[in-house]
Amino acid sequence: MPVIRFENVGKRYPDGTAAVRDLSFEVGAGELVTLVGPSGCGKTTTMKMVNRLIEPTSGRILLDGEDIAGMEPVALRRRIGYVIQQSGLFPHRSVLENTATVPALLGWKKAAARARAAELLDLVGLDPRTFGPRYPDQLSGGQRQRVGVARALAADPPVLLMDEPFGAVDPVVRERLQTEFHALQSRLRKTVLFVTHDIEEAVRLGDRIAVYGDGRIEQYDRPAAVLGAPATPYVARFVGADRGLKRLSVTAVEPSDLQQPPTVRLDDPVGRAADALAALGSRWAVVLDAAGALHGWVPAEALVPAGGGTVRDHARRMEAWVPVGASLKRAFSTMLQYDAGWVAVVDGSRFLGVLTPGRLHEALRRSVGADSSGARREDVRIESVG
Questions:
Q1: Are strands 263-265 and 284-288 parallel, antiparallel or unpaired?
Q2: Where are any strands of DSSP class E within 284-358?
């Protein structure tokens, strides 16, 4: 059963302004759905209708199958975590007291509420012994946002509403907060509605994206599908002409994307390794240990048979590598960072193969083809030009 369901929901103000028009969509348990669009498109109105800060004028919203119109608003809000852009902390209360707010309102004993607050501060990366006694004006913007997230999670709500939570911090802190929240959500699997105007943030965090136009959803789909196959010209314009580059961040490296280069073992005699590379016409090889784990690489010219010894004596450290399942964006960034012509891909320590620029491009094209055809990515055939 979906946790949140919108059924033909609309919001029209007395002056005739239609903020939201006939919304119908579902948010499943444990999903993070990003609502993205320009200012004034209705995304924040949509979110605020879930906790009845704004009342719809038509349709209905169901929470776990129950119409929220029949719920007492304050009791409803205590079941839903809420994070806003400026964190909304009480300036006269300590960080620990701020975080314990909702458990205290729910009648928890003081010791239990404070213990839960300390646990949540630690979860968001703030040592409660250091930060608990401080006040909001003693924190950085990023730290205040972490406290806001901790407070929203303190009563363990199944649903979390987040309204531009990272919009008021600088880009470096914002990226770090996004990374930390994504990791946190992977562990907690809350059902989240996340409002943003930033398509990059929506793509990075969302399991699904709702792209808003003028009070309505123009497309509701997985990030890769929105970037690969925009449903309307409006969506194509909104996600941008560089949507192919954005898609790199939501397309994972898969084993079928990899090439199998020459490999040698650490304890192979130099002469044998040199002969093997010469027979293949290869200028380099990946070096593995006896268990098949990645150790490094070796250029062919370093393997001088007359010098004797083993490959271990000539192996070089492997800097350019990523785990299988990493994004194509991360793989490409790693290539650029180390000025490498390929990156090694591992599963734990086990070597799987290498991803080259050509194979990265093919992987992206297969991903787009899979979305448009409904096929599996590895089954999509790519025609080469030239």
A1: parallel
A2: 284-288, 294-299, 316-317, 321-323, 343-347, 350-355
Kindly state whether residues 184 and 329 are assigned to the same domain.
no
Same domain, 106 and 244: yes
d(CA 32, CA 1): 16
Rounded-to-integer distance, Cα 288 and Cα 82, Å:
50
Residue type (1 letter), 194: F
* Residue 283 φ then ψ, to 5°: -95, -5
Q: 183-187: list long-range contacts, CB under 8 Å, 24+ apart.
A: 184/123, 184/124, 184/149, 185/32
16 phi and psi, to 5 degrees?
A: 95, -5
pLDDT at residue 145, as a whole number:
84
> What gap in Å lies between CA 335 and CA 312, rounded to an integer?
25
Could you report the per-residue pLDDT of 228-262, keeping only the tens digit for each? 888 999 999 998 878 878 888 888 899 989 999 99
DSSP output for 190-228: -EEEEEES-HHHHHHH-SEEEEESSSSEEEEE-HHHHHH
Residue given tokens 């903020």 in the structure block: 19
- Residues 188 and 278 grouped into a single domain: no
Cα–Cα distance list, 235 to 187, 209, 353 (Å): 31, 11, 36
The stretches of 291-385 forming alpha helices (DSSP H) are 328-337, 357-373
Q: What is the pTM of this model?
A: 0.76
HSE-CB of 142 using CA atoms within 13 angstroms: 15
Domain residues for the domain of 284 are 255-363
CB atoms within 10 A of CB 237: 10
What angle separates helix 357-373 from helix 328-337, to the nearest 10 degrees?
170
The Cα–Cα gap between 320 and 192 comes to: 35
> What's the domain count of the chain?
2
Residue written as token pair 């990645």: 294
Instruction: Tell me: do 112 and 224 sit in the same domain.
Output: yes
